[in-house]
Every structure is written in structure tokens, then in C-alpha cells.
Amino acid sequence: MTEDDLDDLEFDTLRTGDHISAARRLSELAESVSGGVSRANVLLRAGEQWQHAGDHDQAATLYRQAIEDGGETYGDPRAYLADALFELGKADEARRLVEEIRADAPRDPEVYRAVAEVLYAQGDTTGAHEWATTGADVVLALRDRAVGTGIVAGEAPDDAPGSFTPGPDDVALAEDSLEALLRLRYRARIDLGRAEDDYDALLDDLLKNA
User: Fold this and answer.
1) Backbone dihedral region of 196: left (phi > 0), alpha (psi from -120 to 50 degrees) or beta?
2) Which of 66, 113, 128, 187 has a CA positioned 20 to 30 A from the CA of residue 120?
3) CA atoms in the 13 A half-sphere facing the CB of 190
4) Strand, coil or helix: what is 168?
5) Tens digit of each residue's pLDDT (9 = 90 or more) over 39-83
6) The dihedral of CA 134, 155, 171, 149: what is its sign?
7) Which CATH code for domain 1-96?
8) Is-contact 85 51, C-beta < 8 A?
9) CB burial string 41-68: b at 16+ within 10 A, e below
10) Would you kindly state where each structural domain of the chain is located, as residue ranges?
């Protein structure tokens, strides 16, 4: 079992719309996973399929299993669990998870994007704006530390998220997240009635150069 195999399964599910079958298949695969794919990653994918199918309770169960497993995953399973908990009406528990993630100061900008999207979907526009801004800062700090361009939109303290020496792969992956973060941030600013700022100008530049 490889990541490509999992991607193919999810692609077929997009075509058929049968998320329940995909969720069950992934749940089965998680118990006998091999080939370098972590069990936690398969559990996380299974949880996503249950959530796409509208079964947020089962999704939460799989997300919890992914967290308990502790294996390598994309993003942070707690963000996905928070999404499911919000849908289940367990907002207090969901927000506690969000605060746990914040306290860990993740270096992966996709974690910030995921949390920002969850909060935006729940009508927490201010929270979404904050998380999207911090995620953009993580990308810009990575870029600045890697190439010394001085493009960071504000000085980041030494203990800020992303305060480590990144490699080329870190920067490339982070750059892939930047447009999505800035787009989400811009939507939140529009909802909040705020004027455009330097981050919005950066988004304009990205779109012009795309």
C-alpha cells in the first residue's frame, strides 16, 4: 500500500460519490497497512470519507484513533477532529483542540489553513482571519529564513512559528499554501468590513504572476 494507492482510491470516490464504501475500505486497510504508509494517515483519510458521507460521529472516532496512534499524518488530525466536533454540536471540545494546536505553534502552514477553514465555516470570521494571517506569516518567515529576501510582512520573534532553518522542500511546500491562506484571509476581511492591507497586495501579486 502506497500513498499513490490511497490517492487513487480517493480519486475514484470523487467520481462515484460513494464515500461510505471508501471509508469502510480505508478503515479495513488501516488494520493491515504496510508499504511505508502510516496507520494514522489511513485512519485520517477514513475519517475524512466518513465526514464527506455526513457521519460526523464515525469521522470523530477515526480521527481520535489517528491521534492515539501517533503515526505520521498530513496536517494535524486534531484540526479534522475539531471540525467533526463542531458538526456534532460539541463546540467547547472543538475549541479546546484548536487552542491545543495554537499552543504547539505548528510549522506546517497547512495546519493553519485547515483550522482557519474550520473556524470560517462555523462563522468565526475573526478566528479564521487570525489563523490565516498566522499561517501566511509562517510561510513568509520560512521564505525569509531560507533565501534572506526580507519579504516577511513584519518582524517575527525568534520563538515564532516557523523559526527554524528550512530546507528547499519546506519552502516549496509552504509556498503552495500561501495563496490559499491569503484568499481565505481576504474573504474574512471582506466579511469583517476591513480595508485591504499589505497581505492583500501580496495576494494580488501572486494572482498576477500565476
Assistant:
1) beta
2) 66
3) 8
4) helix
5) 999 999 999 999 999 999 999 999 999 999 999 998 899 999 999
6) positive
7) 1.25.40.10
8) no
9) bbbbbbbbbbbbbebbebbbbbbbbbbe
10) 1-96, 105-149+165-209
Q: 202: which 3 cell numbers?
A: 501580496
The enclosing H or E element of 23 equals helix 19-30
pTM of structure: 0.84
Closest Cα to residue 172, out of 139, 127, 129?
A: 139
Which residue's C-alpha cell is 505553534? 105
How far is Cα 174 from Cα 204, in angstroms, rounded to an integer? 18
* Long-range contact pairs involving 197-206 (C-beta distance under 8 Å, separation at least 24): 198/153, 199/133, 199/136, 199/153, 202/136, 202/153, 203/179, 206/178, 206/179, 206/182
Q: How far apart are CA 53 and CA 61, in angstroms?
A: 14
- Supply 175's cell numbers: 509556498
